[in-house]
Design goal:
By secondary structure, the protein is of the alpha/beta class. The strands form 2 sheets. Strands 1, 2, 3, 4, 5, 6 and 7 form a 7-stranded parallel beta sheet that branches. Strand 8, helix 10 and strand 9 form a beta-alpha-beta unit. Helix 1 crosses helix 4 and helix 11 packs across helix 12. The chain is globular.
Length: about 350
C-alpha cells in the first residue's frame, strides 16, 4: 500500500550525521560501525532505497535548526542567522537530490496529483516526493524571511521544537506565544502555510488555537493517555484538532510509545515496544473522532534515533508495510486503512492547496 510519512528529518541526517541516503540502510550501518558520537550510529532505519522498498513515495521532509539564547542549555546555534544558514544548507541537499533524480519537491495540488500518478503507473526507480516543512521557527530571523522560505517551497511550519523558542514555547518548557508568535501566525495564514502543532507546549498550543484560523495538522504526535508527558497530546487537544479538521501523524520513537522509558538505559525489547503501540495510538484518535479521518503516519524514524529506540518488529522504514495488516486485525476496513496510510494527509493537502 502507498504510504505518506508526514515527518522525516532527511536533510538533518544527510548534513549533520553525514549519511548518504542514496545508500542502502545496510551500507549506512556498515559505514558507521564503531562510531559512538551519536546513539543511533550503525542502527539507522531510513534511506531512500528503504522508502522505495516500503512504497513510501511521499513524505513531509524537514529543515531544522534551533537558535539558543545564552542561558539555554539545549544544543543549537548561537544566532538566528546561523540557524537560517543551516536550514539553507539542508535545502541545498534536497535540491542536490532533485538534480540526481532521487527526490522531487511537491508544492501544489497539480504537482501532487502528477506525483501520485507517477507512483501508481510507473515501474522501476521513482523519485521520492517531499513536501518541505520547517521544524521550529527559530531560524526565521525576521518575519519577512518566511516569505523567502515560501518561495523556496516551504509549505508547513512548526512554531517551536524543544524548549523556549523565539515564537513559541515547545516541549519541556512552559509559556505562551507572545507578540512575535502572533505576528508569525498572521504571516503563516497569509501565505496559506500549514501550521504544525507538534511540539507546542500546552500553553502555546491553546494560545495558538485562539489566534490562528488557517490549516493546522500535527505531523508526529502521540497520545498522552498512553505516555503522560507534555510531548504528547491530551484528549482535549486531540479533540480541538479534530474539530479543526486536522490530521495527526503517529510517531515511532519508543519513549513516546511506552511509559517509563529511560533514555540510554531502556531497550525496545525489555519495554516490549512494537508496532502495536502505533495501532493503539491510531485507534485512540479514531475513537475520539468517531471515524478514521484524522490520523495518519508521521514516523520521525530518523529523528536522532535508530533501532535502539524503535519498535522491535521494525528493521527499516520499509516495515511500515506491516501496519495495514495490524489495522486489519484490529477490525479496520480497507477504506479505513487507506485513510490512515495515505489518504487523510493527501485529502488535507488537496483541500488546502490550489
Amino acid at each position: 500500500m502507498f504510504i505518506f510519512d508526514a515527518h522525516l528529518d532527511l536533510s538533518m541526517n544527510a548534513m549533520e550525521w553525514n549519511r548518504d541516503l542514496t545508500w542502502s540502510v545496510a551500507e549506512i550501518r556498515a559505514s558507521e560501525k564503531g562510531m559512538t558520537d551519536k546513539p543511533d550510529r550503525g542502527k539507522n532505519t531510513v534511506s531512500l532505497e528503504a522508502m522505495r522498498k516500503g512504497n513510501i513515495g511521499l513524505c513531509v521532509a524537514t529543515q531544522i535548526a534551533r537558535y539558543v539564547h545564552k542561558n539555554n542549555p539545549l544544543p543549537g546555534w548561537n544566532s538566528p542567522q546561523q540557524a537560517w544558514a543551516q536550514t539553507q544548507g539542508q535545502l541545498a541537499w534536497y535540491k542536490a537530490m532533485e538534480a540526481a533524480g532521487e527526490m522531487v519537491q511537491i508544492t501544489n495540488k497539480l504537482q501532487l496529483e502528477a506525483h501520485l500518478a507517477l507512483w501508481k503507473t510507473t515501474e522501476g526507480k521513482k523519485p521520492i516526493g517531499y513536501m518541505l516543512s520547517l521544524e521550529g521557527a527559530d531560524s526565521i530571523v525576521t518575519i519577512d524571511y518566511l516569505q523567502h522560505s515560501y518561495e523556496q517551497g516551504l509549505r508547513a511550519i512548526g512554531p517551536a521544537h524543544y524548549g523556549p523558542g523565539t515564537y513559541a514555547h515547545g516541549t519541556d518548557s512552559v509559556g505562551g506565544i507572545g507578540t512575535k508568535g502572533k505576528e508569525l501566525l498572521k504571516e503563516i495564514e497569509r501565505l496559506n502555510l500549514i501550521l504544525d502543532a507538534t511540539h507546542l507546549c500546552d500553553v502555546s498550543f491553546w494560545e495558538t488555537m485562539k489566534h490562528y484560523n488557517g490549516p493546522v495538522w500535527a505531523s508526529h504526535n502521540n497520545c498522552r493517555t498512553f505516555v503522560n508527558h507534555n510531548r504528547q497530546f491530551a484528549d482535549e487537544q486531540i479533540k480541538e484538532l479534530i474539530q479543526r479538521k486536522a490530521v495527526i501523524g503517529i510517531a515511532l520513537d519508543a519513549w513516546m510509545m511506552v511509559p517509563n522509558w529511560v533514555r540510554g538505559t531502556s531497550t525496545p525489547k525489555e519495554m516490549n515496544v512494537t508496532l502495536q503501540q502505533m495501532i493503539d495510538n491510531i485507534d485512540h484518535i479514531c475513537q475520539l473522532a468517531g471515524n478514521s479521518l484524522h490520523v495518519g503516519i508521521g514516523t520521525d524514524l530518523d529523528g536522532g534515533f535508530g533501532k535502539e529506540q524503535s519498535p522491535t518488529d521494525l528493521d527499516t522504514i520499509a516495515d511500515l508495510q506491516k501496519v495495514p495488516e495490524l489495522l486489519n486485525k484490529k477490525g479496520y476496513t480497507t477504506t479505513d486503512i487507506e485513510n490512515i496510510m495515505n489518504k487523510n494527509f493527501l485529502h488535507f493537502l488537496k483541500n488546502h492547496w490550489k
